[in-house]
Every structure is written in structure tokens, then in C-alpha cells.
Amino acid sequence: MIEVRNLSKSFGANKVLNDISFQVKEGEVVAIIGPSGSGKSTLLRSLNLLEEPDEGVIKVGDVTVDTKLLTHQNRYELRQQSAMVFQHFNLFKNKTVLENVTLALTSSKRKTKAEALQIAEDLLEQVGLSDQKKQYPATLSGGQQQRVSIARALAVNPKVIFMDEPTSALDPELVGEVLKTIEQLSKRNITLVIVTHEMKFAKKVADKIVFMNNGVIVESGAPEAVFSQPKEERTRKFLLSTREDATLEYVI
């Protein structure tokens, strides 16, 4: 579903991504972990060209682009393959919950208003927000807003959903409801790539863990292998540091 070859990105003299290559299978849930500043979010944003890499090849679904030869058309085609869930929700504040979910359906997916409403109402029911469909984002909790953004991502029927630290902007008591929603998605054969600092969640939900540090992929593999028997010293040190912080316990 995703193939990345030799992806690099610099901001001035700071090389944030350094020759990154990896693959994600269809239906796979991949959790990208690592310390702050390791390049995790930049990698995710580069995969749908919110950040434009300096070089490298990105394949998502049926679309392959050489980032040195980007055109308006292949930017558009690549972005049509995926949807993004952001740290800070990025909802339209002047639109209701229902309008936030239907907007992309009527504008870019060319659905009729009736079709868009049906899809949106079904998805809002799935994320437990049917009763809030006429409310505006400012009246919702952070957890509810993030669940709206997940419904919005699902609405366009993407081949991949990218999630960039989807719980980092939430108060601790609201994190669990969003993680439950993502876990439910992970059981539906939807390809997910999630940047997260929730280690217990990553271990439970992901099919593959990717550990990044200083702009490179240090180690990747099955959760049990990476968390229980990491091969690299940098991975071991990072995991030991996260154990000192009590990560969230949540009930499904």
C-alpha cells in the first residue's frame, strides 16, 4: 500500500529526514515512535506532501511520485489516496459537526448532498457522535473533536489514513475515548500509519512498530520484538525512558 524510497528532507542546515525507506502492507497498522525532534511528524506530513521532501520516491495506493519532479497533477493524485488526522483537529469552526464531515464529500468526491449526509450520519454514529451532529466544534470536548476528524477522514474512503499524534493535544482524561475509536478502526482492515507517544496503545494495536531517531529509521518490526527484545541500543534507551513515564491505561 505504501512504499518509500530514499526520502530526505532538510530545513536549512537541519536534515530532518535522512534517506528513509520503508513499506506498509495493505490493511497494516504501523505505529511510528521515537523522541521529540526525531522526524516522525515530518515523515508523516511528507507522505501526502504537506511537507515537500528534497528527494525520494513515494508510492501510496496506485500513485507513485518522484519528489524531485512534482507536478500539480501528481500532488493532487497522491493526496487523493489518503486522509490525515491532525494533532489539533483542524475542523472548520464555522461549520457544524455534520458539515465538517460532508464538506469533502460534496466538494472533492462529487457526492450529492443526500449521499454525503447519509455517509456522514453513518460515520458519526460509528464514532459515537450522532447526538452532536448539529453542534459546532467549539462546543465539543477535545476528544469529541478528534473523533469528528476521524469520521471526516473515513468519509472520503481513503486507501490510507495518516494520524499525527492524535492524542497529544488532549487532556489525559479524554485520551482513552480517542484511542478506543482508533483501535476499532484497526480491526477493519484499514491501512493506518500513526505517529504516537502512547507506547501501550502502540504495542496493543500496531502490526508493526517503526522507531525513529535523528531523522532515520533505527529499527522496525513486530511490536513484541521491538518492545521486548529491541536490537538497537538507541531503541532500548528510548523504551526505558518511556517506562519511567506512566503511559495511559485504557479499557476497551
Automatic annotation (TrEMBL):
The ABC transporter domain covers: 2-239
Instruction: Tell me the GO molecular function terms.
Output: ABC-type amino acid transporter activity; ATP binding; ATP hydrolysis activity
Q: Which GO terms describe its cellular component?
A: plasma membrane
Instruction: Print the keywords alphabetically.
Output: ATP-binding, Cell membrane, Membrane, Nucleotide-binding, Transport
Q: How is the protein disposed in the membrane?
A: Peripheral membrane protein
| Principal location class | membrane
| Locations listed in the record | Cell membrane
PANTHER family under this entry?
AMINO ACID IMPORT ATP-BINDING PROTEIN, L-CYSTINE IMPORT ATP-BINDING PROTEIN TCYN
For this entry, the protein name equals Abc transporter
Give the originating organism.
Trichococcus pasteurii
